Amino acid sequence: MNYPNINETHRIETGQLDMPPRLLLGPGPSNTHPRVQQAIATHEVGHLDPAFIGVMNDIQEMLRYAWQTDNSFTLPVSGTGSAAMEATLANLVEPGDVVLVGVMGYFGERLVDMAGRYGADVQTLEKPWGDVFTLAEIRAGLERHKPAILALVHAETSTGALQPMEGIGELCREHNCLLLLDTVTSLGTTPVFLDGWGVDVAYSCSQKGLSCPPGASPFTLSERALDKLHGRKTKVANWYLDMSLLSKYWDGQTRSYHHTAPINMMYALREGLRVVVEEGLDARWSRHQANAQLFWNGLAEMGLSCHVTEPSLRIPALTTVRVPDGVDAKIVAGRLLNEYNIEIAGGFGQLAGQVWRVGLMRFNSRPENVTLLLAALAEVLG
Predict the structure, then answer these.
(1) What gap in Å lies between CA 330 and CA 327, rounded to an integer?
(2) Which residues contact 243 (CB under 8 A, 6 or more apart)?
(3) Max Cα separation, the chain?
(4) pLDDT tens for each residue of 102-150
(5) Counting Cβ atoms within 10 Å, is residue 282 exposed (0-12), middle (13-18) or buried (19+)?
(6) CA gap 199, 189 in Å, rounded
(7) What is residue 319's three-state secondary structure?
(8) What CA–CA distance (Å, rounded) separates 148 from 233?
(9) Which segments of 189-275 are extended strands (E)?
């Protein structure tokens, strides 16, 4: 067989990969825990190997602990947190379903976009970026729109605001509505009680509170949510994220092939969850709160303020710091990166140029990191 001549245009010589040792104090990813890095390097086995099935079982059980749920359908999606977000809507939304989304930041807007792509009749409740919804506002929205699904963001990464959840699950049951919750920034850092709050479907990610790289994202469905999935009149429109297919790989009995799982990322997630279990949720949540308070106190001493004014409504793992008048947020973040190897992020959307987003998550939630960041920020701000 005669082949064309090989095109050598893109054959480049590159050096060995050598990335700078950043301290990742932005909204995610956070620095990978050393034990997780070791786990990633473990040699692969097949995705149906009995040894790997043991890894799968461990992940499912430890996710139930981290989320405080007994949901049998609990597993990691092979993909980033956005894939898990899309999986919730792909599986539960049928064309014409009313989906009510609480929009108090960028990720509420993303839920609106995704739900619309699956044919939902999307309705919204909206608050200024940095505010949260009251129970009365939620009730009014349910009474007005009568949705099949209420979607809320627990910890809004774009604003630093933490949505109180008490009583919302009961309202959803009164109105025969499923409760969907984004726990991307709260899982592993902030109190989350899925069963206690009456949450029916939730998702998260691996690169924030679980100290893993991005790529394996927690997902769970309650029995009420499973009833809706199994009662669909139409196929799930996304084959890769169809949980009625994926369940046959994860259910513990059939283990039939769907796609090749990211083996080493599952090793990472298992180790990250082991760290959660060893520390214990109460100690873990308390540590994040204590280090957040240390950071907030230091900001106040420097004359800086938080965008979310009420401390009880701030995410312990993610603080939005108001940029002082006359200061260029990008220049400050750039100097922290280039001069101190510290990454923080700026605001975007409605908060572009107005805030810095600072993450103190899991492995990075330590007093020495707070002290280092405050000192570097003071130097940069002069």
Answers:
(1) 9
(2) 73, 87, 91, 219, 221, 229, 236
(3) 75
(4) 999 999 999 999 999 999 999 999 999 999 999 999 999 999 999 999 9
(5) exposed
(6) 18
(7) strand
(8) 15
(9) 201-203, 216-221
- Structure-derived torsion over alpha carbons of residues 105, 22, 323, 297, reported in degrees to the nearest 10: 100
Q: Please report the beta strands in 5-120, taking only residues with DSSP state E, as ranges in sequence order.
A: 23-24, 73-78, 98-103
Segment 219-248, tens digit of pLDDT: 999 999 999 999 999 999 999 999 999 999
- How far is CA 178 from its chain centroid? 20
Contact 185, 357 (CB under 8 A): no
Q: In whole angstroms, give the CA distance from residue 89 to residue 156.
A: 18
Closest Cα partner for 184 from 88, 114, 278? Answer: 88
Going from the N-terminus, what domains does the chain have, and what CATH number goes with each? 23-29+280-381 (3.90.1150.10), 34-277 (3.40.640.10)
pTM for the full predicted model: 0.96
